[in-house]
Write a structure and sequence with these properties.
The structure holds two protein chains of two kinds. Chain A is built from 13 helices and no strands. By secondary structure, chain A is mainly alpha-helical. Chain A has a single domain, classed as MetI-like fold (Orthogonal Bundle), CATH 1.10.3720.10. The N terminus of chain A is likely disordered. By secondary structure, chain B is mostly helical. Chain B has a single domain, classed as MetI-like fold (Orthogonal Bundle), CATH 1.10.3720.10. Chain B is built from 15 helices and no strands.
Chain lengths: ~325, ~300
């Protein structure tokens, strides 16, 4: 892989944007280094996405899948069908509401825990980090299984503990009869599993807040709240933007948790856009309809998130 | 972990020169003492909530089936035995699924780190035509939820004959992990000093050599953070293996998450639930190993700001 070398003194940098940066554009090695990643990304992420968009304009059923024939083109039929379906809008509303609530709670709690972690001794902090690492490392599926068992109507720990409270009868209480309670369980699970990443990341970000700044503020009589609002949060803002954006993307794509807690057959009131698209495509073999739902989902999400995602792009380009 | 996150923020901060400025000031400590007590209590309560479910699972994994249904969830098991674990490992084939998962995650994490860091290095350090465009392509991959591509992915792998193979699964894992990896590593590489690299160029090091022998060691902490993130993420995958590992004879190639799902779905109330709990506990074990291996880096990263 050795390439003929050109001395550094020769860097005739085209636009003098950054004097320290090297610009050697005549060389092919940089490209070679990026190619494996590009090929994989294009083949397994890019191409499927394009296929999916194409698929959403066709009518692919089991027959076409097995025979390999090109499915008939149906134009925007799938889209009109999805968009005029009341069920779809109900599912969308539910997904959006869940995303907002769960992200708000997780980010606020994660930030609170990260801030608290700055206040405790090193040993305690380390203990916290280890505990959180375990939760973070728990596969979603496993976490969901655990919660399914904890909320089991006959043998669940939650009912057992609630029943201990005098005057409360929660024996054999089923948590998923009432959608609100069911969603409370799902939200708790998602928040519980999501906080470690947020807290660990934000705590690491907090270590970057200059201590002199906080001390100076305290000297000048700033309340903790004022220091938080005027010093810590502005410094933490890029990081908060990133983790919030990621949380929205992740929670909007909620699948495993709802799927497992409802035993692989989510009732209509527990469907999210992801499970809905999946059941349409794979459960009902309506691949094209499922694709159309997925495309609409992503367009909806990108539409709402465009500002934050642009923000995230900018932050990523540390110049 | 600091590095994972500090890099995007560096824009706003004088991080580089900040290393020894955080000396301990006793007066600042005193003021927050009352609050610190509260903080400890709050954190303790929260730690209980965090660890509670895990402790419950650990206890249940040592109990027999009848004991689980006795209605005393936090009682200690009557006698400790590893029988449930042997059942899970052998009879429920968790042992095989476990090894399958380990192999797949090892290969795909290694691949992700190799390809991801190479791409990130190029995108962060070289100016060439299309650089921005490619970078945005990578990062927009971050914005797409996994499920979006499931149906066509299934179709593509089927056409390529990769459905139900580890090759297919590993390639898909790598592709799905790349956007995040490249996003963070590119930001990280940008913060590294340029002088050493320039010196190496003067001394006649090739691009490849500069990357492997100079940039990689310098970026170690960032690489470790992202490696952990990828191991965790790929170990956790459930949806992708469910879609990809299908077809005749796929059952012996199942991954751990699939095996766990299998125990719980194929079983009713009469089945060996204790086996499920043992399997759940087993699934956390590798993460303990990973943590033990990277412990020093993680601690160093996490406590850097406070201790220095």
């Amino acid at each position: 892989m050795s390439v003929v070398e050109r001395p550094a003194t020769r860097h005739a940098a085209p636009p003098p944007a950054r004097p320290t940066a090297k610009k050697r554009k005549s060389d092919k090695t940089p490209w070679l280094l990026a190619i494996p990643a590009l090929v994989l990304l294009a083949g397994l992420l890019g191409y499927p996405l394009i296929r999916m968009v194409i698929l959403s304009f066709q009518n692919m059923r089991l027959r076409e899948l097995f025979s390999g024939r090109t499915p008939p083109w149906v134009g925007f039929d799938n889209y009109t069908r999805v968009l005029s379906d009341g069920v779809f809008w109900a599912v969308t509303g539910r997904t959006v509401a869940f995303t907002i609530v769960s992200v708000l709670i997780s980010v606020l709690l994660g930030l609170a825990i990260a801030l608290l972690m700055r206040r405790v001794t090193r040993g305690v902090r380390l203990f916290m980090v280890v505990a959180m690492m375990f939760v973070w490392a728990l596969p979603q599926l496993v976490a969901a299984q655990i919660f399914r068992w904890m909320t089991d109507s006959d043998f669940g720990v939650v009912n057992y503990l609630l029943d201990k409270i005098p005057g409360v009868d929660y024996a054999n209480h089923s948590w998923f009869v009432n959608p609100w309670q069911g969603w409370a369980v799902i939200t708790t699970l998602v928040v519980w599993a999501g906080i470690p990443f947020l807290a660990i990341t934000l705590n690491a970000g907090l270590t970057q807040v200059p201590k002199e700044l906080l001390e100076a503020a305290t000297m000048d009589g700033a309340t903790p709240w004022q220091s938080l609002r005027n010093i810590i949060l502005p410094i933490l803002k890029p990081l908060v933007t990133i983790v919030t954006t990621l949380s929205v993307i992740w929670n909007f794509g909620l699948f495993t948790q709802a799927w497992v807690l409802r035993d692989g057959h989510p009732e209509p009131s527990f469907q999210t856009l992801t499970t809905y698209s999946y059941t349409q495509a794979f459960g009902q073999s309506r691949y094209s309809l499922g694709s159309a739902i997925a495309v609409i989902t992503v367009i909806l999400m990108l539409g709402v998130m465009v500002f934050y995602i642009r923000q995230m792009f900018k932050i990523g380009e540390v110049e | 972990m600091t590095n994972l996150t500090s890099s995007p923020g560096t824009e706003a901060l004088p991080v580089v020169k900040e290393t020894k400025s955080a000396g301990r000031k006793p007066e600042a400590k005193r003021e927050v003492k009352a609050f610190t007590g509260l903080a400890h209590i709050a954190l303790f309560a929260w730690a209980l909530v965090t660890a509670g479910p895990l402790i419950w699972v650990l206890l249940a994994s040592f109990k027999s089936n009848t004991e689980i249904f006795l209605g005393k969830p936090f009682a200690l098991p009557e006698h400790f035995s590893l029988d449930t674990y042997f059942d899970a490992w052998g009879e429920a084939h968790i042992g095989r699924y476990f090894l399958n998962s380990v192999i797949v995650v090892l290969i795909s994490t290694a691949g992700t780190m190799l390809f991801g860091s190479m791409a990130a290095y190029v995108l962060a350090r070289y100016k060439f035509f299309g650089n921005r465009f490619i970078y945005y392509l990578f990062v927009s991959g971050l914005a797409f939820p996994t499920f979006m591509a499931l149906a066509p992915l299934f179709y593509i792998l089927k056409n390529m004959g990769l459905l139900g193979t580890y090759t297919g699964l590993v390639l898909v894992y790598i592709a799905y992990s790349l956007p995040f990896t490249v996003f963070f590593l590119a930001a990280f590489f940008k913060t590294l000093p340029y002088e050493i690299e320039e010196a190496a160029t003067v001394d006649g090091a090739s691009h490849t050599r500069k990357f492997f022998q100079i940039m990689m060691p310098m970026a170690k902490s960032g690489l470790v953070s992202i490696t952990i993130f990828n191991i965790v993420g790929q170990w956790n995958q459930y949806l992708l293996p469910v879609v990809i590992m299908t077809g005749p004879g796929a059952e012996s190639k199942y991954l751990l998450t699939q095996g766990i799902a299998n125990i719980s779905t194929s079983a009713g109330y009469h089945a060996e639930w204790s086996t499920l709990f043992a399997a759940l506990t087993l699934s956390i074990l590798p993460m303990i190993v990973v943590y033990a291996i990277f412990q020093r880096q993680i601690q160093a990263g996490l406590t850097a700001g406070a201790v220095k």
